[in-house]
Amino acid sequence: MIDPVRLANVVREETKRLFPKSIPYWTPLKGAQVLMTGCSGPFGLWLLALIEYANQELDLKIRTCVLTRRMTKFFANYPHLEFMDGLQIIEDDVRSFKLGAFRPSHVIHGATTSASETYLGAKSLEKFNTLVSGTQRVFTVLPSGSVRSVLFLSSGVVYGTLPEGIKTIPEHYSIAPYPDDISSTLGHAKRAAEFLCHAHASEMGITVRVARCFSFSGAGLPLDLHYAIGDFVRQANFRGAIKILGSGAAMRSYLHFADLAIWLIAMLTDEDKSKPSTVNVGSSQSISIFDLAKTVANRSTRPIQISVMRGNDYAVGNPVRNTYVPDTGLAVAYGLEQWTSLETSIDTMFQSVSTS
Predict the structure, then answer these.
(1) pLDDT band at 119 (very low <50, low <70, confident <90, very high)
(2) Which end of the chain is flanked by fewer CB atoms within 10 Å, N or C?
(3) Residue 255: CB partners within 8 Å, gap ≥ 6?
(4) CATH number at residue 76
(5) Residue 235 lies in a domain
(6) 3-state class of 207 per DSSP?
(7) What is the mean pLDDT of the chain?
């Protein structure tokens, strides 16, 4: 469905287009060794593209090590990465892996059950254990004295279900999922892992940043899972129509993957302890699911009919949320903003899809 060659070309061009926005953040990564977990999907695809381009343009000599459970699947999805200079792969489980000779100076950690496993109904205890035990394992194997900074890829689901009337979620908002809400497994696990990151970083004397990630768009987002925007692109491209399973009234927002990669690099490399350690990562520009479907339809090259089923809204692996939009005011401290429009991001999704 997503053509690997088309995908690689789109990612490369988008990375090149936005690269100037990232230039202020690279100096601390010169000669760095970056360990990445939970980055064998779109996050890793775009981060590796940005690092590869920075190496070429700035001669940084950054080396990267990606932990993945299935190396063959990783390279099947992104075959162009087999030829990336300085890339090492560890094929193992985050709960038991060993670093070998790789000595990271920087860590981007986000390993959990995959999106496809969540979609297929992964058990709650398995999801929780993978994330929490995996985080414990990451800090256990880190060599003493070599690590400067850790960036944890958390999620906006740590806030739980919002009261009516809340339009955006600020970082200081202290609500959380109820402990008996099994549908909020990811939120419980991410919150616990955030604590582990802060506690270990404090003991080790290293900088830790928490990126509470919301929703994203752009080439590489799976089109056959539980992501509304991916499903709409798939339907428009292959069915010529979009069916909304729900009321279409829920509010969401989307940050382009190329923007996201720069945000993450900025947070990873900035060790100024006066800056916020926890930052919402996403777009504050809200849009209803119905208007999202219309926007996708308008970016298609053919007329698209939209139908609304008018049933209950639903979510897979998380509770239903009427609003899932971050307040991104703290990101300004890092010089970050949304540079790419939703329309442009959707265009890259269409551009990466196979025509056959």
Answers:
(1) very low
(2) C
(3) 214, 215, 216, 217, 263, 281, 282, 283, 338
(4) 3.40.50.720
(5) no
(6) strand
(7) 92
